[in-house]
Design goal:
- The chain is globular and about 55 Å long.
- A hairpin with an 8-residue loop joins strand 2 and strand 3.
- The protein has a single domain, classed as Pseudouridine synthase, CATH 3.30.2350.
- It is built from four helices and eleven strands, in the order βββαβαββββαβββα.
- The protein is about 15% helix and about 30% strand.
- By secondary structure, the chain is an alpha+beta fold.
């Protein structure tokens, strides 16, 4: 079994919350951090979500695991719901699937599926700014790398800026097994420990 000293938490990060436990950038105007929601000491997020992004975070005090899950070479899948400006056509969708150029780097191929209707998710506070003359669309995107603001840069590169971004799943690979951790049962701001069944993937 995993060491009893290790902790594994899932957290549904709300919009506007920093993906860290302290905010040293502006002492006169502190911003919400993980400390405002999670009272477990010495755990740190595996990978990051930007302040203006929402959704699933995995936190742990298992340093080697944190490194393995954060490093792009291990290709752990991460799935997002992405609301974009305008309706992407097949050309734009195929560009995202095949990989797009961001500066001098081409992203890995991604799984991209347009959603026929908006997903059933809690409203964002504050809501996105709508423009009456500009329609929006929702995509489900799965990446196997996590470069800085990658989803937003990818959709912008094909002409469809991201308006709202929610990570809904994190895949954990080990040998031939994969555990898909999801937001199920977690409202924004809530967290839980991994279940005994989920912890099986972390056995040595």
């Amino acid at each position: 079994m995993p060491s009893q000293n290790y902790r594994y938490l899932l957290f549904n990060k709300p919009y506007g919350v920093l993906c860290q436990f302290t905010d040293n950038s502006n002492p006169e105007k502190s911003r919400p951090t993980l400390k405002d929601y999670i009272n477990v000491p010495d755990v740190y997020s595996v990978g990051r979500l930007d302040r203006d992004s929402e959704g699933l975070l995995l936190l742990t005090n298992n340093g080697p695991l944190k490194h393995r899950l954060s490093h792009r070479q291990f290709a752990h899948p991460r799935t997002y719901l992405v609301q974009v400006e305008r309706i992407p056509d097949d050309t734009a969708l195929n560009q995202l699937r095949q990989g797009v150029m961001i500066k001098e780097y081409r992203t890995r191929p991604a799984r991209v599926k347009p959603l026929e209707s908006p997903p059933l998710i809690p409203p964002r506070d504050p809501p996105i700014r709508y423009r009456k003359t500009v329609p929006t669309a929702w995509l489900e995107m799965t990446l196997t790398e996590g470069r800085n603001r990658q989803v937003r840069r990818m959709t912008a590169a094909v002409g469809h800026p991201t308006l709202r971004l929610i990570r809904i799943a994190i895949g954990v690979r080990k040998n031939e097994k994969i555990l898909n951790l999801t937001l199920d049962g977690l409202n924004p701001g809530q967290w839980r420990e991994l279940s005994p069944q989920e912890l099986i993937i972390f056995r040595d």
